[in-house]
Amino acid sequence: MHGxxxxxxxxxxxxxxxxxxxxxxxxRNCPICGRLYADLGRGLCPGCYSQQESIKEEAIRxxxxxxxxxxxxxxxxxxxxxxxxxxxxLEGKFGNASKxxxxxxxxxxxxxxxxxxxxxxxxxxxxxVDKVQRKYDKEHPKEAAVRKKKEMEEYNRLAxxxxxxxxxxxxxxxxxxxxxxxxKQEQADExxxxxxxxxxxxxxxxxxxxxxxxxxxxxxx
Length: 221
Fold this sequence. Notes:
- The chain is mostly helical and about 220 residues long.
- The chain has helices spanning about 1-20, 45-65, 70-80, 80-90, 120-140, 140-220; strands at about 25-30, 35-40, 105, 110.
- A hairpin with a 6-residue loop joins strand 3 and strand 4.
């Protein structure tokens, strides 16, 4: 009996998928309410998505009215989970007010505004990782040598790539400088040419006036 019902359910599921088609999206169960829906990339059924958007709008309205409110205060006042508030903050939903939103460091509980760890815990985490890595390298010298060799090869590769990029950029800058200098020189040459032409024209006009003056003097005599 149960086998027949499961088979019937699979057949119904297949029929719904065929009806949905490729353009509608795959059929999934909503992670919140469990309802079957055609996923359009939102990850929720239309009802839960609409409800989630209204909750987000409520949190945004609260931050607009209380710009100094902290993450904990917003969560208590609106009922929106702190994880969703953090996601909204990263998406820029709160505008400038997001700079004042604080939440607890996941390690020590200190208030932070970005990431999961405060600066002190992040530094402590890196020190612990380095300590563990040194201990492992001491106990496994061959593997450590291979790893360091690979790291050095990767470092050299990145260094060569950076050097090549730097050379390309310098070459482009030099070409740009040469082009600018050439343009300035051409502009200066053009100005000089125009000045010489203007001087020639002026000398020609003076010569013509001198000639007319001499002719008029001859007629008077």
